[in-house]
Amino acid sequence: MTDMTEGAPTRGPDTEKTLPESSARKGTRRGGGDPANRGRTTIADGVVEKIAALAARDVVGVHAMGSGASRTFGAVRDRVPGSKSVTRGIKAEVGEVQTALDLEIVVDYGVPIADVARDVRENVIAAVERMTGLEVVEVNIAVSDVKLPDEEDEEPESRLQ
């Protein structure tokens, strides 16, 4: 601390102690540097696909994910324990900081398809960006079918009783 009184600088008592850098930063671990920068995080395509699938299914007007054929095969696959496919109708391409998604959906009859697609896009982007930190550069949506009120869901009859 420097005192500038009486025109001549005099050194006052040293009240501040400088600690070695390693002990001054108690929030970091040995090795120095920010812990957030000590490694690399990668996110698999399947992780983004699951997040997008759940976000898309939350939108009112989305009846199912995937085309008729993929839903039929999926229904058969779902009957096998431990093989449930949450990501049916979703394809993600994940880079280091960005991701792009293709979704195939079936909408309920009577809903405005453009509004449902917009809501799905917004919900998917918000969920993926919030949970992964990746920038979603595009969400392409293909409406492959409309579920009519009198149609039954396409699930094959079980051969087991």
From TrEMBL:
Which InterPro entries would you find in this protein's record? Asp23 (IPR005531)
Protein name in the entry: Asp23/Gls24 family envelope stress response protein
Q: Region Disordered: start and end of each range?
A: 1-42
Q: Which family does it belong to?
A: Belongs to the asp23 family.
